[in-house]
Design a protein that fits this description.
Blueprint (H helix, E strand, L loop, with lengths): L1 H10 L2 H4 L2 H7 L5 E3 L5 E3 H9 L7 E13 L2 E11 L5 E7 L1
Antiparallel strand pairs: 1-2, 3-4, 4-5
Amino acid sequence: MDTLIEQEVELNQYEIRQSKTDIERLIHPSFVEVGKSGTSYDFDSIIDMMEGEELSSTRIHSQRYECIQLEPSVQLLRYESALVSEFGKVSDFAKRC
């Protein structure tokens, strides 16, 4: 579980998100994410989104990780996240998996 958490935290780092090599290392090509709006994002749209990001003083905080084993080699990482501004204001709480 520690490795999965470390990799998830890596994906929240701007420098990692700007590196296509790192993104390809951390996200499987068949990965699909459903955003809080209900919109689905596939691998290519995630790459496009991350390439267009600008450096921000807001950071992503994550906590309360839970690892669920779906198959011997397949894990689902569930956790809570929020955005934290440079002034400490917390917003956009979400439960992710």
